[in-house]
Amino acid sequence: MEILHCAILLAVLVQAQCEVPVEGLESVEVREGEEAILSCTTPSDILFCTFRSPTDETFTMKPGIPYEEGRIVYHGADEKKECGLKITNVKEKDNGEWKCLLTALLDGQAKKGEKAALITVAKPPSDIHIVVDGEKTAAVIVNYPENKDRKVKCVAAGGRPAASFSWMLGEDQFSGPIEDLENTANEDGTSTQSQVLTYESQPSHNGKQLTCIVNHKGYSEDQLSAQENRVTLDLDVQFKPVDADKPQAFYNLAVGKEHVVLMSFRAHPRPSELHWALHDGVEVSQGSESIDKRFEADLLTDGPSDGMYTARLTIKTVNQEDADTESNLVVTNELGTTKYPFTLSLGEKPAAAPAVSDSQENGGVPSPTEAGSGPVIAIVIVAIIIIVVIVVAVIARSQGMLCFADPPKTEEDKEKAVEKEEGDTESAEHVEGAKDEKDAASVEEGAVTINNNKKSVTARVSSLLSAMKKTVGSKKEKYTESESEVKVPLQESEEKKEGDEEEGEKKDDSIVYADLDKSAMSEGTRPSVTVENELSEYAEIKPQTKE
After folding, report:
1. Inter-residue contact 175 to 167 (CB < 8 Å)
2. Contacts of 401 by beta carbon, 8 Å cutoff, 6+ apart
3. DSSP, residue by residue, 94-122
């Protein structure tokens, strides 16, 4: 049976052609001992699924058929649609190109297809080291500042795939100009990488370590914990005693009393010579005293921090001549000599003087900083003014203030307003007058014939009373009151008119009003009042007494 099966398989393979499209196969990168999966598919039904390893081994994959004691097994949900391989424990020999070989049934014919992918077994660099001046080293001496820049190369050899680099100085990340050199391929598929850092030294770097860190996926957690991916370079930055920024001042010296002067500085290597050059020409070396026993110099001590030293001078008796003088501490090591000036003062430390602008120091000529700040200040001031103007305008408009207020009215406008009010009053009273005429016609005695061409007596009398009030208030002169003052009597007239309307309904027969012709009014003597712009005359008619 097995022979028959092999014969059929051979016949199918011979007739097959490479026309089946293969999809889905992707390269993977894993560490040794991890799991790797390769999977490929085709649109047609798969008849045979085969993988070929980098060592040219062939694996025909089917569910339930394991290889190498289960290290290599079939992977997939449907063997007719997916051809997959799973390596449960990746080894170094699995690194390289794997090929997926498919035989599928297409249009009734067996046809083949293939696709390749890489399994990259990550391998950490087997050797990392630092090279300075062409030599592999773990320490470097730098003379500052004469030779402060050094080329430091970090080399990572035997890694797969490529690694990346980072740097630290002490416990801090360090950055500087870097250059990645071309990789060198090795026979085993690994490579050698290098990166060159241009390191610029500083006195404060002395005693620290410059660390190269190789970042690679091949390192295990244990290797990372043991820092096997790091290599360090001990820095020996040598320099003469560092100059002081300015002379150091000592205050509160008291005549006749003892005073101690302490001065600290940085130097490497350790100073070999130190002495005090005092203002009166006296020199006192460390560990000795002056001839007159007034000055005593202690031996140099370490501190107050790493890389620093402290010198101590004791003035056993302060004299008046010591005040406002300048002396020097002279320090020498292998790289040079430095003087540290200092002054002595009897009084207390003066208060800090107010800051002097650059223009004052330059004789009144503005400095570039002051000159550049002028336009900025002007722009800020203008912006503030614009904002204030906008706010005021908005408030004024909402409140009707300033230019948004109503313009004042002239005397002529006020008179026109009064006349308009009178006209409106007469028009309103004319309507009521019609009703009064009807009431007057029902009076039994003392009735007077009403002329239909004239205004009602009620309306005319109301207008007369209103005009009389205005005339009496102004002593029969033309009124010039403001618009607001004129409105008050008009309102009173309207209120009176409303009252008259109510009384008109209840009025008795005691008073009868009539509108007379001028011809009838020409006889006899009667009180009358003439209203400006009014062509009619009015009279009060009293009814006869009933018997």
Report:
1. yes
2. 395
3. G-EEEEEEEEEEETTEEEEEEEEEEEEEE
Q: What is the DSSP string of 320-374?
A: GGGTTEEEEEEEEETTEEEEEEEEE-SSPPPPPPPPPPHHHHTTTPPPHHHHHHH
Length of the chain counted residue by residue: 547
Sign (positive or negative) of CA dihedral 160, 163, 168, 173? negative
Residue 377, SS3 per DSSP: helix
- Over residues 410-457, the pLDDT tens digits come to 666 666 655 665 555 555 455 455 445 545 444 344 433 334 444 454
Integer Cα distance of 449 and 514 in angstroms: 8
Q: What share of the chain is helix, strand, coil (3-state, %, to 5)?
A: 25, 30, 40
pTM above 0.85, yes or no: no
Rounded to 10 deg, the angle between the 457-473 and 483-506 helix axes is 140
Give burial (CB, 10 Å; 0-12/13-18/19+) of 105. middle
Q: Is 22 exposed, middle or buried (0-12, 13-18, 19+ CB in 10 A)?
A: buried
pLDDT digits (tens, 9 = 90+) for 369-397: 444 566 788 888 999 999 998 988 888 78
Residues 6+ apart with CB under 8 A from 241: 265, 266, 267, 271, 331, 332, 333, 336, 337, 338, 340
Rg, the chain, Cα only: 59
